[in-house]
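Q: Could you write out the predicted structure for this multi-component system? I'm mainly interested in how the pieces pack against one another.
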Amino acid sequence: MAMLETRSTHAQSSCPGRKQPSMGTVMENTQILVQTFTAAAEKVSAAVSRVSTMAQAYDYAVELCERKEACQLLIAGCQESLSAPADTLCRHKQKKVIAAPLLASNDAAQMKALCQARGIVFIRSGVRDHLAGVDIGFTVAEYGIAETGTLVLDASSEELRLATMVSEVHVAVLPINRLRATSLHLEAELAQIMSAAPNYCAFITGASRTADIERVLALGVHGPLELHILLMET
Amino acid sequence: MQTARNLKTYRKEVAKALSNDFQRQAMDKFAVAYRNSRDNAFADLDSEALVAEIARIKDHALERLDDLFARFKENAEKIGVQVHLARTAEEANALVASIAEENQVQRIVKSKSMTAEETLLNHYLEARGLEVTETDLGEWIIQLRGEGPSHMVMPAIHLSRFQVADLFSDVTGKAQDAEIERLVKVARRELRRKYVEADMGISGANFALAETGTIGLTTNEGNARLVTTLPRVHVALVGIDKLLPGLGDALRINKVLPRNATGQAITSYVTWITGANACGPAPGGKKIMHIVFLDNGRSRMAGDPDFAQVLRCVRCGACANVCPVYRMVGGHQYGHIYIGAIGLILTYFLHGRDKARNLVQNCINCGACKEICAAGIDLPRLIKAVHARVQDEEGHPLQSLLLGKLLKNRKLFHSLLQTARTAQKPLTGGTPYLRHLPMIVSGEHNFRRLPAIAPRAFRDLWPGLRSRVKNPVLRVGLFSGCVQDFVYPEQLVAGVDVLAKHKVAVEFPMQQSCCGLPVEMMGEVDAARHVAAQNVLAMSKGEFDYIITLCASCASHLIHAYPRLLVDDPALEKKAKTMAAKVVPFSVLMNDVLTVGQTASNGPRTATTYHAPCHLCRGLHVKKAPRELIRKVGLDFRPADEEQTCCGFGGTYSSKFPKISAQILEKKLEDAAATGARQLVTECPGCILQLRGGVQQRGMDLRVMHIAEMIWNCERHA
């Protein structure tokens, strides 16, 4: 901390009158935020990785999808002994699916090509036709809260919202410059998001979890069984 | 759901719960695990400051509920939400049913809502032919079993994996293994279908933000997101006490809520819904959204100066998590619908005296709930206040009336004790007992040996003990309390002797009487006020630097209750405050005022553990002084895991609910024994009565003593 203060003073003396922190301070602060965020997210069993470009994020998601077996590896429940109606819903799901609703068309084209090469269905809409579950929901988060390892998503788009709910794995990209220390540091930004009503804003921290049976932790009770966060350099 | 008609039936149901081994073990594990995870969650935070901030935020909101509601309604209706206000539970249920009807709803999915539990909404809707499915795993389980929740956050905590497996076998028509991970997945698939088929989703809300017309929901499972997204209609049922001005208030509360509830920094999902959002199957692609605010007695409470703070509650459930009684009997015996300390109070206001009458007597007054409360609610005091109200409304039982009358007359009270002593047995004949006195020895009360009344009371010994300390460093007045005066005078004798050695001059004002806590515990406020006045006058006569007590319960009562009890008489109230400011427990006087040093003791370094009396560690926040003294006198200190857990005495509580008291004591003694100590030190004669009685009954090799006796013993070897 002492070193950080020295640099900051130095920077201020070379840029008189400027209130903005120096690049050095920003970088160190960012590093602290990234460390805090990563530790908090991993504590709630999120997988945190670094990517430099969106292209790398697409590769990550598609490779993850390829490695995972639909409805099997993650035991989403389809192999369990279910009642007839629940079992029927499971059978709706045949192919692997990646849903990435709000992706810009250029990006979507890139990701779609990657999916097609591996026989994965890529969708940007119509998630309601896949309520039995999609393999991966792919999103870009608005903000991250370091203290709790939380993603903030404007989920007002129903397609996007559903993609983060019915996917077995949620892969979210978080641009590093969107990290804030605590939820209170985001008050103004959140107010901005919510002022564009109607709005559905989601804080997501780790995978869906329950401890309702004997207080034993189990992941993936209703929402994603896994959350992967890709911190993107900016 | 507790519904017993009278105390006798309630005791029977409690006894049954006590013999539920699975629940008992689950609760024990939970009590210990919760404490650790909560400590971790607050490790880097100033929890007291956060709690104070929540209290401030909620108080501010509760003072302007009408205004907040009006603003919420205006703002939410601008963005497509219909906002309703239901005055009663019945009205709320009827509103929800009519919304279902006008939208041709047949199937409903619900996310967890205590408010809907409060109005018994499911029953109401089901009676009208609607299919309602709870989607929170725990809620679904208890719904399938036809039960109410046994905890506000973990509704099925009373059930084992085997019971759930049997239940799910019935539901699916296929045999299910009792493997938790798989059972959770079965629920995932079974419930997914229910979401897909539902026409309407019902949720509660943790926050309702007036500035933006937003509702906030915290969940771990993510079921609330599906409930509020998939069906074409969404109805949120929200208590008006959830109204806040804006997001900042909610974010601050949400810093504490999950940490206090489950030791999580935040729940997996926090969802903020502002207005009617996009919804594919709804007409025009827009969700049909209604918010029903429920009053059901809340605005009346908000206007009650004493009870308004109850509405600060954020429903974290922590008051149950730390309650020693809840731990023994479980949620179905510790609340009607709302569980835990807050439940005992809310039951009276929301569900009526009939449901609250028995429950409200089942508080041991250990203060653990008050210490943990996310909103700083004075729960134990308010439970007592509800009890007093119930008695005022229904008439006081003869026993507590008699005790109240007896205590008002100090001479009669003391001469009765003398008579009892002459008879060489504790008071008999159906009279109730004081916090500090032996109970009727019957089957249920026989879980510990009870002391006889001492041959000579301390007040009779005093003239011979009184010593003149030359050039005293301090002059103190001794408030004895009745247990030490009449049952354990030797503790006071040891204390006075130790003080004389440390050059403290002690006076014992003879006009003092019982502190009055026992009668307040029994709902006899008038008698409590009477003895408070008497003691304030008695203790105000001398010029004392401090007033000391060797009884933590007396100390806590003198400090916290006297100024409140005497508030109607300004002169007495002033005296009470002056007196309260001088009261210190014995260990604090020794350790913090006299700052005694290490004793050069040549005595044995006996392995010694410590029991922190509730009214010392929580009532007065004295945690360090007794521990430091144990080390200073040269003993081998062996801290117990559950040092601060109640011993189960609770004064009159242990005669009212002897079976619960016995079980709490059992756990306490196990915990002490696990330290390998040969001595158990504490600083309250009530705790000593309970602990020593239990040790003797079990024939344990453990010497129970007051900290004054411990110091006296060790200094003897110096």
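A: Regarding packing and overall arrangement: The two ends of chain A are 24 Å apart (CA to CA).
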